[in-house]
Design brief:
This protein has about 140 residues and is mainly alpha-helical. Helices cover about 55% and strands about 5% of the residues. It has a two-stranded antiparallel ribbon with strand order 1-2. The protein is elongated, with a radius of gyration of 31 Å.
């Protein structure tokens, strides 16, 4: 049983999957930093310095200056600013993954088409074997 598990765990696909998950986790933190440290502050500049991480609606009807104040008052809040940030994060992540897949597909050479094994009979247009000298459908003589 141990040998079976070792064979399963060390298959190429499992190792590729593990590497992909590890790189994906590291890539996720890079994209989060890009969104939170670069994109959102720039978006804040264009939207009159709105801090998206501090946009919320308190569900208790009270008005709070900051999200932290609402959370300290134990008010239920809808953090729509964080939702906007997560949407931007997803769009950037999806776009980067799209670019990576496109790049990988470009690097892969297309497989050469298989050599034909049949040809068309010039009389009845049926498919016949490439080496045939007589059509099996209409019995006409065909060139090899």
């Amino acid at each position: 049983m141990l040998k079976e598990f070792k064979k399963f765990a060390l298959r190429g696909n499992m190792i590729d999957l593990a590497v992909g998950i590890i790189i994906g986790g590291a890539f996720n933190s890079i994209v989060n930093s890009l969104v939170n440290d670069i994109v959102m502050p720039l978006l804040g500049v264009f939207t009159k310095k709105i801090d998206f991480s501090n946009l919320f609606i308190a569900l208790d009807g009270e008005s709070y200056d900051t999200l932290l104040a609402a959370q300290e008052a134990e008010a239920a809040v809808v953090k729509y600013g964080m939702f906007i940030s997560n949407i931007i994060n997803f769009i950037i992540m999806a776009f980067v993954v799209f670019l990576i897949v496109k790049w990988i597909n470009k690097l892969q050479k297309p497989e050469a088409p298989a050599a034909p094994t049949t040809k068309k009979c010039p009389y009845c247009y049926s498919d016949i074997h490439l080496d045939a000298t007589k059509c099996s459908h209409c019995t006409a003589d065909v060139e090899k």
